[in-house]
Amino acid sequence: MTPEAVHAYVCTWREAENIGPCLAAIRAAGVQRVFVVDAGSDDGTAQRARQAGAEVLAAPRGLAGQRQAAIDHCRADLLLFVDADDRLHPDCVRRLLADMAGHDCDVVQASNRVLSPRRYLERGMDAVMALVTSRPGPTAMVGRPALYRIGPLRQAGMDLEFNGVGNEDAALAIRLEGLGARQRIGTGLSFRRHPAGWGDNIRAWRKYGHGDAALFRRYPDKRRNVLRHLLYVYPVERSRLLWAAGQGRLAGYTVLVGAARFLFMLEGLLRRRPPAVSLRPAAGVSPERSGNGTG
């Protein structure tokens, strides 16, 4: 397989600033068919996407639902999900294809780094990516950007309970794991625009904390994993790795992320959130009977 055989999908809402550079990087990586699933942006996102040569699809706002619209639309054997703030390296897709073929996996995620990290929160996230979350090898938890075989992806489907909160990718990984799909962090490299300001980071932590709450409710056998992730992996394990790598000043970042997401998870659990409409259970997967891992 070559990058020309891949269909790429970018789900957007108010991404006028990001969409041009994102699409240019996808094209530079060799992907010819690029689709933007836009949720009615009022800032010119769709117009800029068309000007950049992408085909624009409309979908209601909600990342899980937009991704499901992409899955339903895709007619290729391989689907690449890219976020608007991702910037693929020119060799990224070729490397992901080689990883998928060489390791016979169904999903392979790019290794991520922060694009031009300068401020503390950017450097903290970049260090975590470099030391922990983007190390090539088998995994039970795939994020973005990621290349999927369409068969297992369509069989799993997105969990629309996660519309409006974070961790829709973690929920998808759980459903794929329940189907026995093989997931991997690959050697393809992508750079992400990470928010530098406190306000944007707090909003992101709140979103993912509410996603943690959704995981806690929706997948009861993942509760121990979620708690361990927020109360041990972030504040203890990742801090220790940063100190060992001579980056102890950044350990405060991992402690802060774990604490913030835990507190926002509690907030999410206390909220009475109505269930999403048209929930799609994964074929053969019960939320109570999936495997290990968390976001």
From TrEMBL:
Pfam families in alphabetical order: Glycos_transf_2
Subcellular location field: Cell membrane
Record keywords: Cell membrane, Glycosyltransferase, Membrane, Plasmid, Transferase
Single GO MF descriptor: glycosyltransferase activity
Record has Hydrolase as a keyword: no
Signal sequence range: none
Record-linked SUPFAM superfamilies: Nucleotide-diphospho-sugar transferases
Location (main, coarse): membrane
Domain of life: Bacteria
A GO CC annotation given for this chain: plasma membrane
Segments forming domain Glycosyltransferase 2-like: 10-115
Protein known as: Glycosyl transferase family 2
